[in-house]
Design goal:
Elements (H helix, E strand, L loop, with lengths): L1 H9 L1 H32 L9 H28 L6 H9 L1 H12 L5
Length: 113
């Protein structure tokens, strides 16, 4: 246990990377479950189109989780000076725009009741 604490204090970025890797892997599994769960609907489109909304939602949130983990990791690397600003961070910001644009819109223009 003492060795773990010493390693955690000496190099916390390694453990942050492990944590974000686990989040990215969970996001990939969620995406895969949603994608493979809804792929049968593409070949038998005789059913209601809203029937597979849960599969689309699961795929979308799995992709969001992967992109968020990658974006946080790139941001941490840039802050610590381990890597220069890269196009990966720009790609993450663009791909996550469906998540952060509505939040900013709600903050700037609160709904009137």
């Amino acid at each position: 246990m003492e060795n773990l604490v010493v390693n955690l204090v000496q190099n916390p970025v390694l453990f942050i990377g492990y944590f974000l890797s686990a989040i990215g892997a969970a996001g990939f599994l969620i995406f895969t479950a949603g994608f493979l769960g809804g792929i049968g609907h593409l070949f038998s489109y005789s059913e209601d189109a809203d029937h597979m909304e849960h599969a689309r939602t699961r795929s979308l949130w799995g992709l969001y989780l992967c992109m968020a983990a990658l974006g946080v990791w790139e941001f941490i690397r840039i802050i610590l000076g381990e890597a220069p600003a890269s196009s990966t961070l720009v790609l993450v910001v663009i791909l996550l725009s469906p998540v952060w644009i509505p939040l900013i819109k709600k903050l700037l223009f609160p709904p009137k009741e």
